[in-house]
Amino acid sequence: MRRLSPEILIPAEKIRARVLDLAEEIGRDTPEDGEIAVLIVLKGAFVFGADLVRAIPRRTRIGFLESHKDPHKRGMADFVFTHPFPIEGADLLVVEDILDSGWTMDHMFARLRARRPKRLRSVVLLDKTPRREVQVPIDYVGFAIPDVWVVGYGLDDGEAFRNLPDVRFTVED
Q: pLDDT digits over 56-103, tens only?
């Protein structure tokens, strides 16, 4: 079992500043009259996604995608839209909490490309590069982190700690 470490990896103020920077970058890369179809991957990215879309200086429509991983098959996850969310011809931005091995994101992108968006971009809050097994194109990255288990700002451990305003380490008991 894991418990919360008192050590903060990324403080709330630093997260807030980076989210504003990311929103500005996304806005610059989007035509002024353009609309972004933002797809937030639940549950981990909901806090990040909410803060990000409020700061993007373009018209957005927002959808949610649930990822249900098959623990027996690498990268095989079932992705379910929580409500109908048309993406054909859309400028699609996928918002994800953390990228580690890349298998799930690679599978998700293949499934989304099959729906023929005009453009597919992605933003991740945390990039755990040391764990990468499959290279996936990520357009915007909040923070690169080491290969450690983290919680907070939407990320959990057994559904706990999502409500923390910062990103923290956990330690094994």
A: 999 999 999 987 665 555 555 666 667 778 999 999 999 999 999 998
Q: In the structure encoding, which two tokens stand for residue 92, read together?
A: 């699609």
How far is 56 from 21, CA to CA, in rounded Å? 10
What are the distances in angstroms from CA 157 to CA 4, 151, 154, 160?
A: 9, 7, 10, 5
Is residue 119 helix, strand or coil? strand
> Residue 47 burial by CB count (10 A; 0-12/13-18/19+): exposed, middle or buried?
buried
What average pLDDT is seen over the chain? 91
User: Which residues are known to be catalytic?
Assistant: 100
pTM: 0.91
Beta bridge partners of 61: 37
In the chain, the domains with their CATH numbers are 2-172 (3.40.50.2020)
Strand segments (E) across the chain: 2-10, 35-42, 59-69, 77-81, 91-99, 119-127, 140-144, 150-151, 167-172
DSSP-based three-state secondary structure for 49: helix
